[in-house]
Fold:
Amino acid sequence: MWPFKRSKGSPSSSSSSLSDVGAPGSTPYLHFAHSGSSDESVEKRLPSPKPSPPISPSNPPPIVTVPSSESQNSEKSYHRRPFEISPTNEPTYDSSGIRIPYISGPYLISQNSNKKAELTEWSDNVGCSPGRLCTFYPIRGEHKKVTKWYGRMEDGYMVWSSIYLFEWFGFKYYEPLPPNVGGKLAKIPPWLPDLYSLPNLAIAMSYFCVGVALQLLRTPLIVYLIEDKGASPAEVNVLFTVMAVPWCFKVLYGFLSDCVPINGERRKPYLMLGWFIYLITNLILAAIGEPSISAVIFLVFIMTSAYMLADVMTDALIVERSTYETRKGDLQSRGYIIRFFGSTCGAALGAVVYNKNDWSFYLPISMIFLLNGLFILVFLLPFIPYLVELSDDCKPKAFKKQCSDLFETVQLRAVWQPMTFVYVFNAMQIANAAWMSFLVEGLGFKAWEIGVLGTVASLMTWFGIIAYEKYLFESSWRIVFVVCSSINVIIGLLQLALVSGKSREWGIPDLLFALGDDGVQEFLIGIQFLPLCLMYLSMCPAGSEGTTYAMLTTFSNLAGTVAFDISTVLTMVWDVEEETIDAGDFTGVFNLSLLCTVVAPLPLIFIGLIPRNRSHQDKLIAETTRSPTCGIIFISVMILTMLGTFYESIHTVRHSGDVYEEYRRLLTWGD
Structure:
C-alpha cells in the first residue's frame, strides 16, 4: 500500500479527475488530482520496474509527482520517474490515443475528513472487484471518517460511488476506452457489457419497473372509476387519453437530457427525477384513500409522464453501453426481456388484487397505489447508488444544434429507408376493435378470464423476445418478418373459427382456444419486436443517443396510433353494436376480423426497405448516402401524425359519451 503524499507548488482542482499523462510511444504516467481546497499536488509511490526485487521498507518504489487537473495543461515541469506495472507489458491507450499502464488494482481513492487523499491497494480476496462497492478502511488508523468511496480502476477507466444520499447527484465517471485506438484493442471492464453487474443493475430494475407500471394499474383503475366512483364515459376516456399522450413526450425528454445535463450527467439525474415523481404520485394517491375522479386523472397523467421520462433515460443508458458490446444488441434484448417480464407480473397482479366481484380477497385501491410505489422502493432504489453513467464532455448542447444533428441523421438512407417500412408496417397492424366486445358480450367471458388473456399475452411476448435473443439473434431480419407475419395470418384466420363457433364443434373450450390464439400471436410479435430495436440502436449517433432513440421509438408508436384510428373507423362499416353481438349475430365481427387479418401482411411488399441484418445496416450507415427531401418527409410525417394524435384525443374527449358507453358495459363483469 502506498499513501499519497502532498507536495507544495501546484494548484488543486475543485473536482476529482483521473487521466493519464504522457505521449504515444513514451513511458506512461498516472495522473490524479484530488478534490480539496489545498494548493498541493499529489505524489504516489509506485512499484519499481520489472525485474526489480519485491518492494519492501528497505527497497521503496520510485516516486512520481503528479499535478492536479488545473495544472496538467500548463507549461510547468514536474518530477517524473518511469514505471511499468503491466504484467504483460502490453500497452493500452486512453480515448485520446495516449499510452497508459494497466492498473492491476483494485484501488480505492478516499477523501478523508481532514482532506488528506490516500491511495489504497486491495487484493481481490477482500471482496473488491469490478462492479462492486468495496468495504474500505483507511490505511492509517487516525482517519476514521471516510466521506467518499471509490471503485476499481482498470486501463484508465475510473468508477466511483457513494453511500450517502446527498451525494447521489454528485457522481463523476470517466469514459471507458474505445474498442480500438491506434490499431490497439483496448481492454473493456468486464462489468460494462453485463446488464446484471452491480453498476448496471439499476438499468435492469428500471426496465422491470417500467413493465410493471405499464400493466399493474390498468385494470384496477378502470374498475375503480366505473364501479366505485360512477365515472361517466367521457371521464373514462380522459383517463385513457392522459395515459396515451405522454408517449409523445419521449422526443422532448430526449432533447432535454441531451441538451441540459445536470451536474455533469445526462441520464442518471433525469432517471431518478422520473421515478421520484412516479413514487410521489403513487404515495399521494395512496394517502388520499379513495381519490376523486379528477384527482386520479390528474395524478395518473403526472405518473405516466414521469415513468416515460425514466424509460427514455433507461433506453439511452443502454444505447451508450452498446458501443462496448462484443455482440451489439445483447444489452438491449436483455433489457426488454426484463421489461416484458415486469409487464407479465404487473398484468397478473393487477388482474387479481382488485377483482372483488370474482375473488373473496382483494385490496382497496389505496393499497394498490401503495403497492405500485413499493416496486420502486424495493426493486430499484437499492441499486441507484451503484449506477454508472458513462461520461463525455457533458456540456449543454444548443437546441438548434441538436435539431440540426437530428435532421442530419434522418437524411441518411440507413435511417429513413427502414423507418419507412416500420411506419407502414405498424400502421397496417389493425386490431379488431370489436374483439373485446365479442369476448365479453358474445362469449360471456368474465373478469378473471379477461385477466388471464392479458397475462398470457404478456407472458408469451416475453417468451418471444427470449426466443429471438437465444436462437434467432443472427437471423435475417427480413426472413423473421416474413415468416412471423405469414404465421400470424394463419392464426388470424383461426380466430374466425372461434367467431363462427367451429371451435366448439371441435370440442375446444372458448377460453382455451382464445388463449392459444392470442398466445401464439403475441409470441410472434415478441420475436418481431427485437429486430426493430436493434435497428434503432445502430441509428443513434454518439452524443445524441437519448433524442435519436426516443425519436425513432416515437415514430414507431405514432404509426400504431394510425392503426388504432383505422380500426375505430372500420367499426362503423359493419354492425358490431352491443345489441347485435348480444343477439348472437357475429357477422360484423367475422368480417372485421377477416379484413384485419388480410391487411396485416400487405406491407411485406416493402420488406426490401429494411436491411437484411446488422452487417448490412452497418454498410448502409458507412455509405452516408443522404437525401434532404426524404429527411423533410420523415420529420413532416412524424409531426403531422403527432398533431393528429393530439387532435383525435381532444375530439374524442369532447364527443365520447356514446363511444365510451361500452366501457361501462364491458366492466360490469358477469352481471
Observations:
- The first strand starts at residue 5 and ends at 8.
- The CA atoms of residues 111 and 117 lie 5 Å apart.
- Confidence is low (pLDDT under 50) at residues 1-186, 657-671.
- The domain at 198-666 is CATH 1.20.1250.20 (Growth Hormone; Chain: A;).
